[in-house]
Amino acid sequence: xxxxxxxxxxxxxDIKLMGIALEVAREAETEQEVPVGAVLVDSEGKIIAAxxxxxxxxxxxxxxxxxxxxRAAASRLGNYRLPGTxxxxxxxxxxxxxxxxVHARIRRLVFGxxxxxxxxxxxxxxxxxxxxxxxxxxxxxxxxxxECSLLLQNFFQMRRS
Length: 161
Description:
Blueprint: E1 4-5, H1 12-30, E2 37-41, E3 47-52, H2 65-77, E4 86-91, H3 95-104, E5 108-113, E6 138-140, H4 145-160
C-alpha cells in the first residue's frame, strides 16, 4: 500500500501546480460547470495537459476534469500509458477517475479538497493505493484544501440561491 502524504510534506511545486489547477477550475465555473480543475505534469514538472469539468456543456457523464486531462495527455503523447506523471486535481477523484488513473499508470496524485461523499482515493475507498489493483500511485491530499473547498462551496451556494 502506498503512503498518503500530508500537505505539510508536499513542496512548493505542489502548491504552484495546484494553483494552476484552481485557475482551470475557475474557468470551468464560468461555463456553469462544477469548478474542478486538473493539471498533468511530466517527471520534470512540465505541464502536459490541463482541463476543467465539462460534464454539462459537453453532455458527457465522463467529462470530469481528470478524465479530460488524461485523454488530452494520452493524445498529445501518443500513448494511453502516462508513466512518471503527476496529476493535480482540486477535488479528490471519484471511482471512475481513480480507475482511469490506474489504467493510465500515473505515478502520483495530488488533490486539494477531500470528498467525503464520493472520494475514492482516501475518503470512501483507497483505489490506486490499496494494493488490490495491477498498479498503484502515490497520493498527496489536502494541498490548498481550503481554497479548493471554498470554490466548490461558493459555487453550490450560488447555485441554490
